[in-house]
Amino acid sequence: MAITMNIESKLGLDAFKLDEESHIHINQETCRRDCQEKHCLFVCPAHLYSVNEESGNIYVEFEGCLECGTCRIACRYGALDWDYPRGGFGVQFRFG
After folding, report:
1. Is 1 in contact with 87 (CB distance < 8 Å)?
2. How many domains does the structure of the chain reveal?
3. Considering Cα of 20, then 78, then 38, then 92, what sign does the dihedral take?
4. What is the pLDDT of residues 33-86, one digit of tens each?
5. Do the Cβ atoms of 73 and 54 come closer than 8 Å?
6. Residues facing residue 89 across a β-bridge
7. 23 closest CA partner among 77, 95, 88, 94
8. For an engineered disulfide with 25, which of 1, 32, 57, 81 has Cβ 3.0 to 4.6 Å away?
9. Cα 69–chain centre separation
10. Domain of residue 77, residue span
11. Using 50, 70 and 90 to split pLDDT, how confident is the model at 7?
């Protein structure tokens, strides 16, 4: 009998080697001035982006990044400076 896993279960198997430095940097000024849509809040499959309602700043919890690059593509204004994590850091996909 085959066991079926949903996406949440599969993502729960992933391991993350955490870096102290974020590999995603957000130009807050560009984001506040130019972007009304805030696509990054909705396109990240790991739901890592949030907005501070008081300051209007966008925050990313880079430690859980799946390294897909979706946020970089969705940001039409170039407010995200995204690169892969430094060598030895980031996500390790494990399939069960």
Report:
1. no
2. 1
3. negative
4. 999 999 999 999 999 999 999 999 999 999 999 999 999 999 999 999 999 999
5. no
6. none
7. 88
8. 81
9. 8
10. 20-92
11. low
Cα distances from 69 to residues 3, 20, 21, 47, in angstroms, run 30, 20, 17, 13
Give the position of tokens 């198997």: 13
Q: What pLDDT was estimated at residue 19?
A: 94
Q: What CATH number should be reported for the domain holding residue 68?
A: 3.30.70.20
Dihedral angle sign, alpha carbons of residues 38, 52, 13, 16: positive
Residue 8 within any structural domain of the chain: no
Residues in the chain: 96
Confidence band (pLDDT; 50, 70, 90) for 13?
Answer: confident
What's the pLDDT at 68? 93
